Structure formats: C-alpha cells, structure tokens
Amino acid sequence: MIILVLLSPFLIALGWVLYVDSSNINMIEKFYKNESCKTIYNYKSRYKGLCKDSITIINNNFSIDFSQNVYIKYDDIKNIKIVNKDILIQSSKGKEKLYFKEKVDTDKFYEQLSKRLK
Fold this sequence. Notes:
Elements: H1 2-34, E1 38-43, E2 46-50, E3 54-59, E4 70-73, E5 77-83, E6 86-91, E7 94-99, H2 103-117
Antiparallel strand pairs: 1-2, 2-3, 3-4, 5-6, 6-7
C-alpha cells in the first residue's frame, strides 16, 4: 500500500504525458488533413508533410503552437540533396535539414518532393 502511495504521483504524471501526446498527434493529423497534405513522416517528434504549396514542418512539443510551423514554399527551393538519411534543402530563406529514420523513407520523400518541384 505504501508503495502504491509513493508511486501514484509518478503514475499520474506518466498518464498525463501520454494523454497530452496522443491529443497532440490528433491535432497534427487534423491540421495536415485540413491542409490537404500528403507524404507525411514523423521522426524525433518532428512531422514533415508535403502540402499543396509548401513543405510544412511541425514540432511535436508538450503544447502545439501552429504559428511556429516551418513552411518551405516549393517556389523558394533552390536545391535539394540527400546526405545519408537526411534531406538538405536550400531555399531563398535559408537552409533546412529533414531527418528520417530509414533510408527508404528518405528516398520516398525525396521522390515525391522532386515531382512537386518540376
């Protein structure tokens, strides 16, 4: 009984974190659906989606602030290249590095991005 009392704050905190994370994922999925985004990848709590006019990057933190999204317009992209499992994008507004867990995901995202740039 004492162990249960001592562990209850930890278990409550763990439950709260899991609840917040799942509600964040639902909000992110809804955002991408409303923006008609395709080819969406998540790695290291960073979502990347190919949307109608731009690549949209959303960082999944404890609280989602969609005003902090990174938008890379296709018209602004000057150069893209693959380095290992990452995609380096150089645009008129700066450089961005997109991380992927698997090389297969990198190749698929790169292929879809290349089609949108043509």
